Structure formats: structure tokens, C-alpha cells
């Protein structure tokens, strides 16, 4: 079964942030983020080249890192939604829309 990595990355970035925010337990949000990264990463390895997988992983981790300073400029929700959209779009274009091998 093909897992839609665009949905996984967006949901784990948004869900991880929301869980950390609502519970006050940042490691719990990090666990959601890590689980989403592992699930998406497994699919990227199966569907794409090592270079594309590395680029998508860097985009995912970079989105998490960028969301923090971006939130100071535009707010938390807009920041999380923006980085999630960019990451999901990259995942879709580079991994999800391709036909299975």
C-alpha cells in the first residue's frame, strides 16, 4: 500500500506542534514529528533515489527548524501551516505523484 507522504509530512508537522502546544510536553510533539519522518522516509527510500530521499528529509527537518523563527515574524499557526504546505508540496512532487515501481 502506498502511503501518501505529503499527507504524512503535513500531518506530523501540524500534529506534532499541536500536541506539544496543547500538552506542554515538547518531547511528545517531537515523537510525533519523528514518527512522521520515519514513515515518510521509508516511503521515500522505496520510491525515489538516495539523493531525493536526502533532499526530502532535509526539507522536513528544515521545515521544523524554520517554523520557529518564522513564528516570531508571522505567528505560530501561519508558520506551521506554511512550512507544512511547502514540505507536503515537495513530497508530492518528488515522491507521491510518481507511479509505483
Question: What does this entry look like structurally?
Answer:
By secondary structure, the chain is mostly helical. The chain has one domain. It is built from four helices and no strands. It starts with a helix and ends in a 5-residue tail after the last helix. Keywords: Membrane, Transmembrane, Transmembrane helix.
Which outline best applies?
Answer: globular
Distance between the termini: 12 Å
Structure class: mainly alpha
Sequence of secondary-structure elements: HHHH
Strand content: under 5%
Would you tell me the overall average pLDDT? 95
Unreliably modeled segments: none
Keywords: Membrane, Transmembrane, Transmembrane helix
Transmembrane segments: 74-95
From the structure above, extract its key features.
single chain; 101 residues; mainly alpha; 86% helix; membrane; transmembrane; transmembrane helix
Q: How is the secondary structure organized here?
A:
Elements lengths: L4 H19 L2 H22 L2 H25 L1 H21 L5
Helix pairs in contact: 1-2, 1-4, 2-3, 3-4
Task: Give a brief description.
This protein has four helices and no strands.
